[in-house]
Write the structure tokens for this entry.
Amino acid sequence: MVSFSLVDRKLEWAEREKQRLEDLKKECIPKGMKLLPEEERVETLNFLKENQKKLLAELSNFGLVVEATKTKNRKMELEKQLSKIEEAIGVFSRRKVFVNAED
């Protein structure tokens, strides 16, 4: 027969361990930041990948040599956007993404 005080003590230890693990999770989050929910992270990542495909398709329409100034500027703008999107894809591909807590 198990005494109730032993059971109570085990429950108390389990509760303390649960609290300790929660505190550890909170310590991992930088001040002023919050962990982005997994659903939002995946949704944003998919959105970025779709935009990347569109930009790559548009860039593939340009020839190897672009001479007109307007066309050159458009191509450079698309390349800048693609670079930013690729950087963002790198960030949102991580398992944990932290965002500003004030948002």
About this structure: Residues 13 and 85 are 47 Å apart (CA to CA).
